[in-house]
Recover the amino acids of this structure.
């Protein structure tokens, strides 16, 4: 059924206290849908809400208010930052916060863990039959990868959109048969807001040096060959590595098989220059990627399950050769934290970090050795997002470390005469600048980091109130 | 009353130091790395003041993640100006 007002839709929905509602984050910091829906739930006095969002951003001010008011009881998500994350870190939720991975979220939806009562999914457009897409419309955001399993497995699926197309959609990412209701709104948000975070190559000399050394490391390890597959993030250093990767492909006349994950203009340029055969796009990070998805047949939108679900036999990342990932902390056992800062405050989350690290043949972490005075390398990370067994190399501006479990890589680097340190040596170099931090206390449990397989990876603790 | 002496800034990885006359040595520290480094930085400030042989001074340090050499340099310059103006 199609509704033109929130009130008419909410009269039809099976609302109850303690219900689970889900959202995707393709509009990132430009999303208006979650705020609109949560306000309507508040108006209907729905209590003890379980918020299952694939990610949460500073734009989600209503979620922040409803957490403070105790109306949102628990949160399950893959990533959160900003004021809401701070509030959660201070222990404001009555229930638990669960930090999943992108692949783990898809797996858990399919396995009916923490089942969703109503999924409210922003679409850039629907056709007259109710097929939904992210590619066309007033606020196009590209791939709808993180919404597909919600649409398939929620008890009720509501598509929220601001555009109805006259022409039928030929390749909708969410087919009409999965859609129960459509809500028409003035605007699903501001598609420009998807470009939040750094989407430019780093200009910082430390970042540039890390990028140069990371590309050099890949070269020494023999990564550059026809058919290589590669993924990196959208941070400034990662983008510089992507650019360096493309440059070597071009110089040597090589063609990569695929790039995966969140897609930016750097991957699109490689596709259009014939440096890579296919892009597997679970999420578009900029408007160039959005436009390319509509134009290039080999730029393929995929679901979160197809991307990274450990139980999906077709998952793209099982064939991934190399992934480049960031870190807020790394410990001497190569465990990586991207969920909290050094003191336990939630500042992000796995997203696809733990998924790709486990599956890729080579996982390289890139990060500065210290930020301000805060050391990267610690005895034990505050929060384990990705276990050390899945991490192979660390590249900092002052040196490279290789996981001792990867003797093959160490041997190869020795052959190639590429210098590297033990991680303890890198930690000592760091401490010469920063000093060794004092031990910090952990406070009450507020939730957990869940591995992609559904087990508890680590505990999240309350930070001291300020 | 003489105006206080200010060095440094509140930029990330820097610190702002304010120095003013007092009856005894007072050090106030606010830092973004309080949990890991409060005692470390406090001790560094104390050692630096001692080395400059100043003891009737109030020092306020607002630290934004500066490394030791930055904090030391900011404080030393502030204390030397302070002495040039006839305090200490």
């Amino acid at each position: 059924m199609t509704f033109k007002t929130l009130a008419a839709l909410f009269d039809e929905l099976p609302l109850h206290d303690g219900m689970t509602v889900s959202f995707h984050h393709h509009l990132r910091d430009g999303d208006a849908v979650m705020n609109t829906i949560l306000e309507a739930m508040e108006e209907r006095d729905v209590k003890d809400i379980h918020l299952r969002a694939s990610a949460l951003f500073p734009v989600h001010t209503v979620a922040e208010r409803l957490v403070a008011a105790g109306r949102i009881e628990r949160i399950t998500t893959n990533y959160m930052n900003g004021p809401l994350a701070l509030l959660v870190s201070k222990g404001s939720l009555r229930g638990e916060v669960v930090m999943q991975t992108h692949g783990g979220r898809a797996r858990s939806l399919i396995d009916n863990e923490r089942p969703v009562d109503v999924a409210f999914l922003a679409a850039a457009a629907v056709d007259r039959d109710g097929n939904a897409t992210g590619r066309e419309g007033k606020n196009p955001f590209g791939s709808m990868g993180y919404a597909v399993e919600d649409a398939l497995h929620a008890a009720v699926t509501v598509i929220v959109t601001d555009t109805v197309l006259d022409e039928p959609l030929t390749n909708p990412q969410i087919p009409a048969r999965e859609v129960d209701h459509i809500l028409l709104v003035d605007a699903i948000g501001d598609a420009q807001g998807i470009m939040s975070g750094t989407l430019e190559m780093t200009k910082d000399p430390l970042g540039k040096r890390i990028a140069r050394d990371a590309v050099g490391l890949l070269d020494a390890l023999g990564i550059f060959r026809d058919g290589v597959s590669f993924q990196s993030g959208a941070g400034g250093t990662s983008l510089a590595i992507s650019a360096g990767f493309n440059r070597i492909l071009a110089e040597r006349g090589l063609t990569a098989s695929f790039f995966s994950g969140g897609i930016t203009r750097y991957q699109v340029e490689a596709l259009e220059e014939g440096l890579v055969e296919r892009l597997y796009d679970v999420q578009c990070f900029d408007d160039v990627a959005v436009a390319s998805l509509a134009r290039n047949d080999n730029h393929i939108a995929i679901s979160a399950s197809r991307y990274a679900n450990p139980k999906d036999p077709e998952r793209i990342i099982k064939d991934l050769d190399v992934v480049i990932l960031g870190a807020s902390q790394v410990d001497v056992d190569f465990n990586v934290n991207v969920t909290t800062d050094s003191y336990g405050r939630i500042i992000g989350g796995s997203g696809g970090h733990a998924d790709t690290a486990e599956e890729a043949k080579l996982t390289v972490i890139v990060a500065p050795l210290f930020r301000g005075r805060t050391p990267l390398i610690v005895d034990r990370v505050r929060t384990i997002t990705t276990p050390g067994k899945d991490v192979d190399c660390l590249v900092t501006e002052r040196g490279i470390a290789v996981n001792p479990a990867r003797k093959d890589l160490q041997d190869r680097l020795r052959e190639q005469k590429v210098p590297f340190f033990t991680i303890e040596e890198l930690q000592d170099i760091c401490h010469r600048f920063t000093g060794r931090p004092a031990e910090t206390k952990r406070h009450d449990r507020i939730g957990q980091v869940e591995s992609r397989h559904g087990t508890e990876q680590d505990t999240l603790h309350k930070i001291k109130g300020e | 009353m003489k105006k206080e002496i200010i060095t440094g800034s509140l930029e990330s990885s820097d610190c702002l130091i304010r120095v003013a006359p007092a009856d005894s040595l007072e050090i106030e520290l606010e830092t973004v790395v309080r949990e890991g480094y409060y005692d470390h930085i406090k001790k560094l400030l104390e050692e630096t003041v001692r080395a400059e042989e100043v003891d009737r001074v109030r020092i306020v340090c607002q630290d934004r993640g500066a490394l030791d050499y930055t904090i030391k340099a900011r404080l030393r310059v502030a204390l030397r100006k302070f002495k040039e103006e006839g305090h200490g």
Q: What stands out?
A: Chain B touches chain A at residues 12-13, 32-33, 35-40, 64-68 (CB under 8 Å).
